[in-house]
User: Fold this.
Amino acid sequence: MAYNRLQTMLGNIEAIRLALSLGVEKRNAENAAEREILRKYAGFGGLKCILNDADSLLDAAKWSKSDIELFAPTVELRQLIHDYSKDDREFARYMDSLKTSVLTAFYTPSPVVDAISDALKANGIEVKRYLEPSAGQGVFVDSFLRNYPGAEAMAFEKDLITGKILDALHPSVSTRIEGFEKIESDFNGYFDVACSNIPFGDFAVPDPIYATSKEIAYRQSTKAIHNYFFLKALDSVHEGGLVAFITSQGVANAASPFVRMELMRRADLVGALRLPNNTFSDNAGTEAGSDLIILQKHTGKKALSADEEFFIQSIVDRDTKVPNNKFFAAYPQNVICTEAKVGTDPFGKPAIIYKHDGGVEGIAAAIRQALDESFRLRLNLELYNTQGIKPPTPDPIEPKPKPARPTQAKKISETPIMRQYTEMKKRHPDAILLFRVGDFYECMGEDAVKSSEILGITLTRRMNGKAGYIELAGFPHHALDTYLPKLVRAGQRVAICEQLEDPKQKQKEQEQFKPTEIITPQQPPEIKPKPEDAPVPNEDAKSDAKPEAVPAPQETTKEIETDGSPDYSNNPDPRLFAYNLFGELEPIGKPQRRHVQRTQQPKEDKPVEKKPKVEISPQVQSKFRQLTDKELEFYGSLNWDDNPPINGFYETMMSIAHRQLAEREAARQAAEQKEKDAAVGIEITRTEGYFIPKPKEASSNAPVQKEERDMSPRPFSEDIQFFHKNGSMVVDKGQVGFLSEVKKYGALFTPLALKSEQEKRAMLYITLSETYQQLYHYEAETHEESADLREHLNTYYDEFVDKYGHLNEKQNVKFILMDANGRDALALERGENGMFVKADIFDHPIAFAVDEVTSVDTPMEALSASLNKYGEVNLEYMGGLVDMEEDKLVESLEGHIYYNPLVENYEIADRFIAGNVVQKAEDIQAWIDREEERIKGFPGYDGIEPYIAMAQDSLKALQEATPRKITFDELDFNFGERWIPTGIYSAYMSHLYETQVTIAYSSSMDEYSAKESRGNMKIWEEFCVRGYYRTYDGMNLLKHALHNTVPDIKKSIGKDENGNDIKVPDSEAIQLANTKIDEIRNGFSEWLEAQSPEFKDRLVDLYNRKFNCFVRPKYDGSHQTFPDLNLKLLGDRYGFHSLYQSQKDCVWMLLQNGGGIADHEVGTGKTLIMCIAAHEMKRLGLAHKPMIIGLKANVAEIAMTYKTAYPNARVLFADEKSFKAENRVAFFNNIRNNDYDCVIMSHDQFGKIPQSPEMQREILQAELDTVEENLKVLKDQGKDISRGMLKGLIKRKENLTAKIATLQHQMDEKKDDMVDFKQMGIDHIFVDESHQFKNLMFNTRHDRVAGLGNSEGSQRALNLLYAIRTIQERTGKDLGATFLSGTTISNSLTELYLLFKYLRPKELERQEIRCFDAWAAIFAKKTTDYEFNVTNNIVAKERFRYFIKVPELAAFYNEITDYRTAEDVGVDRPMKNEILHNIPPTPQQEEFIQKLMEFAKSGDATILGRGPLSETEEKAKMLIATDYARKMALDMRMVNPSYEDDPNNKASHCAKMIAEYYHKYDAQRGTQFVFSDLGTYRPGEWNVYSEIKRKLIEDYGIPPHEIRFIQECKTERSRKAVIQAMNDGDVRVLFGSTSMLGTGVNAQKRAVCIHHLDTPWRPSDLTQRDGRAIRAGNEIAKLYADNKVDVIIYAVEKSLDSYKFNLLHCKATFIDQLKSGALGARTIDEGGMDEKSGMNFSEYMAILSGNTDLLEKAKLEKRIAALESERKSFNKGRGDAEFRLQTISHDIANNEAAIARMKEDAAKYEKVVKRDKEGNPGNALRIDGCQSSDEKVVGKYLQTLAQKTDTHGQYERIGEVYGFPICIISERTVVDGTEKVQNRFVVEGNYKYKFNNGYIAMSDTHAACMNFVNALEKIPGIIAQYEDRTAKMKADVPILEGIMAKKWGKEDELKQLKSDLAALDRKIQAEIAPKPEEADGVENKQTEGETIDAPTTDTKKSMVAEPFDIYRPLQPSTRPIRTFGLY
Assistant:
């Protein structure tokens, strides 16, 4: 049955209604009928219509023709869900969930699912636990429960509605209405089978555990949902378990094999089937390709099978470009189809379309057959059933082995290792033998089986010589302490044997083994043999007795009794046990024992349950010697919790040491008590009957009564503090221990068994650590100093150091690192001059700035100090600092401070006369007027008079600083600017549409909405575009005009083979829509022009107050003295003997603003500005802890400059060693705990600093909100939401959601204990070369606009945004950072928005700018350029090409910016002498140019000698063409290495020029830079760098060592060496690219020339290149080259070189003018070429032809074609209006005729009708066939007629009323599947009149009889409706006639353009016409530099220039004619 969308929709609605009602009733589906209804639910995968608006009937106009039948059901669906929702939020969640499912909800047909589950059942798979990770309504669950009725099932479904249906259908199933990522880790390895149809797409999955996993496969899987499902499902099934998923063909066909490799590494491939495309067509209405992939988990596999190798590989057919998987190519029987052909997938990519003509049933049967075969070949049933654990191989029953079958014993004895193992096993037959082999402990045979079951490790088999196989199980040696307790707890005795050496290298008789330990579970004491008994055990104790000894003098065996309670799984490596608790390394050799007789201690009856115990015989106890102090310290440090013994010997010594230490402690305490008693005169007398204990001496044999301490884990009794975390060392009830399971309200405390001295040390450390944490936290939160806590911290630290040494000493470090906060504590010391010293926190607060200024020298310094301490001018405080009276202080600061009455205080000039001075002046004027009015007429002195006078002076200063008012004529207005009140837009549109239009704006969503009071022909016709699928009326286009977007209109160009429409953009409709939108937008300016002067003034005032109100203060920093600056050292090292005035001014600006932008050209001293500003901020307290970040290549130089300028400053410089993984945490703590003057690091290192998770979450959440709003805005604009658009938005949403979930997980789990940026206390960041961070994320609706960059942004930029927002949040102000760069705007003015987003978020918000679109609406104009594509079709290309209101934009930028060029600063640097070196094309290039032009026209890449374009390349033809043209211009060998060298190519010209400069400045050792981003140096490959070097060496004799490539420098050291060699003149020529040589290279000392082999894309790149030589310190150019550096740009004629250079030059000029404010115009045109799209086709063709006239011709043709297309669209619209006018005229005539005839009927009725007194009509009804006049009888008769009559669709007379005949007609309808007949009654006159639509009342006979009179009574009302409708149509006639009379306004322009084109054609033809000399065969001699322009073909055939080769063969003696291109 074919997919029926309407039927599916209705079935879905019915199922949803039942599911929601069941939820309200709190019950499940209880009968078959209800379950059947629920099973009708088929999801919304094929019902994209639910995305459309369906809130009211008006929305139906927006629906396409194909979807309109679903409008009513969609309205019903929304209403249904709304009625059952608790609130609007829940309703939105339901709808969002359904809309998201549109992409993924394609349900699998039941027969297909049954085929899978039946195949599993038939092939022996028994399922007890089943997992469904993407259940839908449960078709897989149904099938599996049918085959496995008792199975436990768990199903996940993310969609809320679908989940409710699933839950109601399957009450016995554990249904989880959430994503699969929510499954708990407890279910890992739990399920037998996971089977589903999983979602597919690049959607991120919010699984923080996978996202933060150390395994790359897990991390990568969270980025694509299908990969995640496979890996998560494999984790969820047990070893041998099956995962069977239906997924997209993209999994198997993907070009990257990474995912398939990971799957094959973890599992065996059981089967893979390619399903036909029509599998889902009946069930879900989609024909997508899909695969069934079945995997069997096998984690221990060693190699891949051939099938799995095939499965990993994807292939692409060379001819069809169709991707495929090699497995299906090898096994075509696994492709389920009856027909296959090449076609395209739903995304238009080449694909094989598989069909199966058997329908779903036939597909299912074929699947079943293929699965049976796959299971037979590849299913490992044994692995499935045993879950990877195999039973032991039994020994043969016969004692004597048979010759044919060797016994197990023989197997084991045949390899050297097995001989060792067998010998040891004989000694310990009843114990599990752990046998050390290399780095593993191995178990073999039966022991291996037992171990694998107990420990859950993999059981394998290995070859044992020639005998066969033996079971094997093992684990790494360092995991012994994890697995050993588990074996003991399971009741197993364990023997551990260490292999001495490789048995292959030993003789049999010399085999030796390390001592073996025997570990047994604890047994009752009476069963254990007495130590003094003979070693032969009795019968009862046989199982626990030691085995009979084997003569082996090398072996000692010990019995250790334990219950297995110690679990030291956290111990990283047993080899570390040689260190004691305090980190002291002890020798691990055995000490010599001395047996000392001792008295046996009494033994308790009850067994010890909680701790392992070392049982030592009484003889040993009594005879053991007293340990030495060193032995006691070492063995006493061992314990079971954190430092367990490594073997039985150490365990015994641990027990003895603990006992002797306890005896010593008891003796010491008794002695102390005795001394105390003696001191206070206490006398102890012995009396009989009392036992008086005395201190026990070491030699005493009496037992010690030791108090038992509770060592079991217990709840922590103290409150949880902010610094407590898992692993924190704490004290609880006098015991030291660790915390675990730390939650908000409690934790688990585990005591540590420590010696007394250790415990004291630990307690003192804990007190010290907690005091530090409390001190730092208090001061960071309150910004108040805590003297008491600091005193305590010093006391505790001093005591600790006095007793135990420094924290960082060896004996303390390892102990302290056992604490989770240990690294923080170690950072309390820092190393200086080989000594440990206290961190700064011991002396003063380091979490905030401490004002220590007590006196200053000048009023200006007092002013700075006041701003620091109070944030304002405090004259009293300033007077105290400088010792001056207030009046004198104010007088001395005149011009620097002004009185501001609004704040009732003085303000500094740079703040007072800054910012929005217009608003400030108005407020102060209002204050003056108010105060003067108040004291007016007051006879005495009020006291306010002096303040009024000061305020008037301040007002005068503000008014003088106010910017010149911009007039109305100077302004450009964009329709849709957010600052213009919506009332103005409403008035304009009401005027334009001639009806009331209301426009509203939502700032939070940046969205306009509009509605009209009444529609008219202006909206429905004049401003309407009718597309193929939908109509865009005037209101719809109005929204697009407000948002500056264009609707994406589609049309159908036919049907595909499946009957679906082939949709393509309707370029004509789009262009018509764009024309009408432009008419709306452009008409706004004309309408404003027509308004009254008063209106214009108000609008202009509003603009000036909002934008033209900013003043940048004239920062004068000349008064600064910089007291700590060491100019002498700077002069000695760098030659800086004084500062530029520009440097002082810039520093002062940064100090006053708290940051900004230092936009200084290269070489103007930015580095020193940065260092001085950072230090001054620190000195003045304006910043507490500044940070400088710079390029890796520069950061060391920055640090050196800082230390030179301030030799006494405390600077923390992050070198490479500091940021190694093992040092990073300590370095971050160092930043946090110390008060450095500045912290300096590289950009890359800064990126590794963890940012505050809270700030990250806040910013990402804001971005997520914007993404969700954009989706709504797109819908509201009426765009057709394509699947691609929807998928893109959902993908971005899911990615952001996943990031937020990961951050939340990290915050909740406290996994990242590393110090983050917020905790470091950094409060200002200086960002050197800030343009490196310009790729910041932003959201925009202009997704089709070129040149905007990547809206996703980079992580590097995002990290910087996090940091700056952290600082801004702390200060509550903008800025908080300083950006330094000579190229802050590198390519486009759109980068300004990103600068403002970083630094001025609050100011942007004041201007109503909350996103990029709002900014662009004010300052940018979008152009839609209609260009030719390669097939001569016109395509639209949008870009923000024009920028308006540029002076105000520049003012906003300059308010926080100090812009200086080298000329402004007066830098003594050379001038730039720019030379354009033109190179004629070589013959090879000429030939290739022709090929390029042909390729650009045809798109046939084979012309260029390469393969055809791929599908992706097809979309970027012009970019490829542009790239080829660049390579061709550089060197033909860049295109194809087979080309030969040419003496006239660019490399040869460049080599010649280099050699000329080399020899010219040979005496001065002059140096040169050569730049090229193409053809960079690659060892072993041909490249342009090496080619030029070869020419320089071979042709010009330059020594090779003087020519270097920057790419050769792999380390920073080698890079510095080359730079130094350049400055010394040892290297004379240095090659490099922009990225590697353009920044961070100060090698200018001897530079005389720069060579640009190619032109970069951005103006900033060219500036950076030139700055390598044109900078201060260039001595050779100054002394020997007239202080100039030649900059040579090499341009091949008829290439893109010159064109690109000119574009860059123009763009750079605009940017410089904007920065300097020197613009002569208010609008900038940026041009239209970028690196991501290349050139447009027409310009490309014209430039390559070498004829500038052709370029002009191409532009004219393009404009003419665009205008003609626009005229065509206009005429089409006028034709539509003409048709509409004809239709309306016809309708008016028909209506007037109908009205006349209905009036006749009305008049006839009025003549004969009889009415009562109240005017009610009487009933003159007569019914044929009914003789009675009784109303009831007549009524029943009529009712009988209505029920039983069948007229077969004909009108039949049944009677009359007032002379009007009454007729009945029968109509057939289908109700509930049954055909029924319905009868209707009419009254006939000139028309047929009905009442109640012709149906009579069946329950009321009176109403039935009155039906006909009522019908006649309605005639006047019908007449009125017709008259009203006619009047409205007549009103529309003039509008339509106006449209008809309207002429296209650009006809004259088109005629003029055509005339210009004709003239240009004549000029071109005249220029290319043959000269008379040429006609006669005589050579036409030309002077050098003449140009021959290439001709064009017939312009009637093509509107694009098509040049041909005019070069003829020349005589060898003649000079070649050269053509010059555009330059």
About this structure: The first helix runs from residue 5 to 25. The CA atoms of residues 574 and 1835 lie 104 Å apart.
